[in-house]
Fold this protein.
Amino acid sequence: MEKLIITGPTPLKGEVTINGAKNAAVAILPATLLIDGICTIDNLPNISDVQLSCKILEKLGAKITWNNKNSITIDTRNITTYKAPLDLTSKFRASYYILGSMLSRNGEIEVGMPGGCKLGARPIDQHIKGFESLGAKVTVGNGTIYAKAKKLTGTSIYMDIVSVGATINVMLAAVLANGTTTIENAAKEPHIVDVANFLNTMGADIRGAGTDVIKINGVKKLHGNTTYSVVPDQIEAGTFMLAAVATKGDILIKNCITKHLESITAKIVEIGGTVEDYGDSLRVSCKKRPTKANIKTLPYPGFPTDLQPQMGVALSLAEGTSIINEGIWESRFQYTEELIKMGAKITAHGKTAIFEGVDKLSGAPVYSTDLRAGAALIIAGTAATGTTEVYNLEHIDRGYENIEEKFRNLGAKIERVNE
Ligand code: UD1
C-alpha cells in the first residue's frame, strides 16, 4: 500500500505549473466518440481518471496513440461495440458521458452505473430526463444504464437543478440530433465552455455555453483532423492558492485562467491573503495567520464545492470561528474527522461545519476519503508540525498529476513510499 509521508511545517514557496482540467478532460475524451475521424488532444492531465477514460474508449474500438505524457491522438473511425466495459465504467463518475456521446453517434449504448467519489447521493435523473426529451428510451437496472434511440430530435429542456454532468451529457447527445436543442438552467462551469469549444472546433454548432441557456443546433457530422488543448484546471490552481494560504507561503501559480478563480481570490483576500493577478498566472501569499470567514459552496461562479476541503484546512488554522455551508453535496465533510485527528476543532452536522480556528495542527496518520479531501490532507500535513502519513492515495491520483513532486518543488518535505 502506498502512502505519503509529510514532515512539516513548511511555508510553500516557489512556482507551480497547472495541468489541464480533469473535469474537462474526462468529458472531452468521450466527446471524441462523436467524431468519425482522428483528432489530437493536448494539455491532458496525466491522471488515473484520464487513463481509465482512454481504456474505455479503446474497449469501444478507438485507437489511441500517446504523443507525450500530456497529449494523445485518437482515432474513433472504428467504434465496434455499443457495450462499454461495465467494470471500468462503474469505477468513475464521468463514464456517464459515454451515454450522451454514443447515443448521438450510435443510437444505442450500455454502461455500468457510474462510480466516483462518495459525496452522498449522486442521482442522474436530469441526464435521463434530457435523453428522454430528445427521444431516447433509457433503462436502469442490474448495475447498468442502457439507452436507445431510433433518432434524436432537438427540443427545449429545463434542468430542475444546476448539474454540470447533465448539462454536458445533454449537450453531447444533442450535437448530432435533428434540429435545435435548448438547455435552460444550464451549469456554467469553465469545463462546460471547454467541452463546447472542443465540439465547435470539430464542427458542432453550440452557442451560449458559460451562460444558463445553451443552444445546440444539430449538425450532420463532426470532422476530425484538429488539435485541441484542454483548459487549465481551475480546481488544481485553487488547491495551490489555498496551500499558499494555509502554509503561510508564497506561490506563483502558472498556466491558469485567473477569471475562473475569482470566487477563490475574493475569499483569500477576505481572510488576509494577497493575490496578484497576471491574467494567466497568480501569485498568492499569506504572511500571517489567516482570519475567519463564512463560505457557502455554489455552482460556478460561486465558491466551488471541489475546493471546500482545501479551504477547510485554511479555516482550521484561522483566527476566529468560521462556518462552511456545503451547497452541492450531502456528505462532503468526511475529511473533517481526519483534520480533527491533527488537532483541528471542527463540528460538522449535515451540510454545515463550524471551524474553531487553532494556531497549529499536529502530524497524524490520516485517510483520504475522496479526491479533494486527499488534496486537503496534503496541505494540512505540510502546514502541520511533525509527521503526517496520508493513506488511500488512489483517490488523489484520480485527479492530480505528480502532486507530491509539485509540493516538493515548493519546498514540502514529502515522500511517497510503498509499505
Ligand atoms: C461535477 C464534478 C465534481 C463536482 C460537481 C459540482 C465532474 C466529473 N465532476 O460532478 O467534481 O463536485 O460537478 O461542481 O465534472 N444532481 C441531481 N440529478 C442529476 C445530476 C445531479 O440531483 O441528474 C445533483 C447532485 O446530486 C448534486 C448537484 O446536482 O447535488 C450537482 O451535481 P452535478 O453538477 O451533476 O455534479 P457532477 O457532474 O456529478
